[in-house]
Amino acid sequence: MRLEWLEDILAVVDSGSFSDAADQRGLTQSAFSRRIRMIEDSVGVELFDRSRKPVQLSPATAAQETRLRDLASELRTLTNDLRSQQASAQRHIAIVAQHAIATSHAPRVVRDLVDSGGLSVRLRSANLDECYAMLLTHGAFIALAYRTDTDPPMARSDMFTVLDLGVEHLIPVAAPDFPATGRDCVAYPKDAYLGQICERELLPGLGATKRAETSLTTAALELARAGVGFAWVPASLAEAHIHGRTLKRLVGLPQLTLRLTATRLTQDATPAEAVAWDRLCAMAKAQ
């Protein structure tokens, strides 16, 4: 039984609802419901009596509630002790970045932390919900993510400290011979962050035809270069290809400004984590 599983279960018990527990865990309700189903599938037991309001543990699971709480407390203490010892001794931190950022801005951030901060960095890549989930479960200390001014507020924003690291532009690009009036496009899935903002901000009214779909910006860029259709990709990712004339930036199509953010839990940090956050604050001031 993993610590984050125990904390998910207890969040439902303490709040009495899946929606409130999702807010408490910093996840969307759909993402949290998928996690609970995954836990039940892995354990092989239906943990909750969903017919009752507020939601309660099933009788078999309720009999083990005290053990679940004790085990969660012990695992949390052990995890924090091990992380503190390792981070202090090795100056090691873990960072998680949205997939699009892991191949664009994250290398610059990691280089600064290594060269100027003297840290050892583990970089992980995940979708937006998973990035914040990893912060809550201490799988990472910092999450690098995009935000827009029209995004809904973060769930339990009081739990997080957010730092603005600058802006990125999501721009439409295509192969050099792509027709100016072409409307074939490479899209992102609707359950991915970039897919959601494209559906909300960029695609309405264009009459675009989705010819391919991928959750990876690097794949979208390569599909655009191959002539499958146009794609919106981060300008930092497309810049070298545009200069090399293997891609062109399309005029007449909308673009979107994204804010690059660094997020951490609002709590005490280990010495290595404090160094990392100080370096990020310096990067933010220098932009």
Give structural notes.
By secondary structure, the protein is of the alpha/beta class. The chain is built from 12 helices and 11 strands. It has helices at 3-15, 18-24, 29-43, 59-62, 65-90, 99-102, 106-115, 128-136, 193-202, 217-225, 235-243, 271-286, and strands at residues 48-49, 56-57, 92-98, 120-126, 142-147, 160-174, 184-187, 209-213, 231-234, 248-249, 256-265. Strands 3, 4, 5, 6, 9, 10 and 11 form a 7-stranded mixed β-sheet that branches. Strands 1-2 form a two-stranded antiparallel sheet. Helix 2 packs across helix 3. The longest helix is centred in the N-terminal third of the chain and has 26 residues, at 65-90. It is globular and about 65 Å long. The mean pLDDT is 89.
Structural topology:
Layout: H1 3-15, H2 18-24, H3 29-43, E1 48-49, E2 56-57, H4 59-62, H5 65-90, E3 92-98, H6 99-102, H7 106-115, E4 120-126, H8 128-136, E5 142-147, E6 160-174, E7 184-187, H9 193-202, E8 209-213, H10 217-225, E9 231-234, H11 235-243, E10 248-249, E11 256-265, H12 271-286
